[in-house]
Amino acid sequence: MKKLLLLTAVAGLFAFSSVNAQTKAPKLSVGAEFAFPMGDFGDAYDFGYGGSLQYQHPVAANLLVTGSAGYTNFQSKDLPLVGKVNWGSIPVKAGARYYFGENFFGAAELGAAFGTKSGSTTAFVYSPGIGVDFAVADKGSVELGARYEAWSANSNTSGFIGLRLAYNIGL
């Protein structure tokens, strides 16, 4: 058991360090969001789109904490009796991002999605993902990320695959 704990501790230290570890600078990110509903959610809705802002703050080599907010609009399929409808939401999330090298990262966020229509519920949000971030200027980079995101409310979960194309500005 002691060997297992020691191995876990060493692996944890290795995971948060790197031979070429460099602390990333704080960034503000502006992105376009695209969502592709899955499961029962995909039976009723075709796609979603929107935008987001994200702040990334370094806390250790290759590890950043994140905070994000945005707007996502989902367009339904042609539904019986009502036709097509739009459903908007404002997701607000916090999480972490870890760079596994110079450009490749894994991320996870938790938060809430606030419906924009009267009577809408607030949903719990969880979102694991991956992405790449390429420098294009001294303090600028372009990011492409993919994630699975789920919104849970009233014993129902709506999940989608999300894509984000963003421009990061170093602060």
Q: How many distinct helices? A: 2
**Share in β-strands:** over 45%
Q: What string gives the helices and strands in order?
A: HEHEEEEEEE
Note the main sheet. 8 strands, antiparallel, barrel
Q: Kindly report the spatial arrangement of strands forming the biggest sheet.
A: 1-2-3-4-5-6-7-8
Describe it.
The protein is mainly β. 12% of the residues lie in helices and 65% in strands. It is built from two helices and eight strands, in the order αβαβββββββ. The chain has helices spanning 2-15, 39-44; strands at residues 27-37, 45-60, 63-76, 86-99, 104-115, 122-137, 140-153, 156-170. The chain has an eight-stranded antiparallel barrel with strand order 1-2-3-4-5-6-7-8. Strand 7 (140-153) and strand 8 form a beta hairpin. The N and C termini lie far apart (45 Å).
Give the key terms.
single chain, 171 residues, mainly beta, 8-stranded antiparallel barrel, disordered N terminus
Topology at a glance:
Layout: H1 2-15, E1 27-37, H2 39-44, E2 45-60, E3 63-76, E4 86-99, E5 104-115, E6 122-137, E7 140-153, E8 156-170
Antiparallel strand pairs: 1-2, 1-8, 2-3, 3-4, 4-5, 5-6, 6-7, 7-8
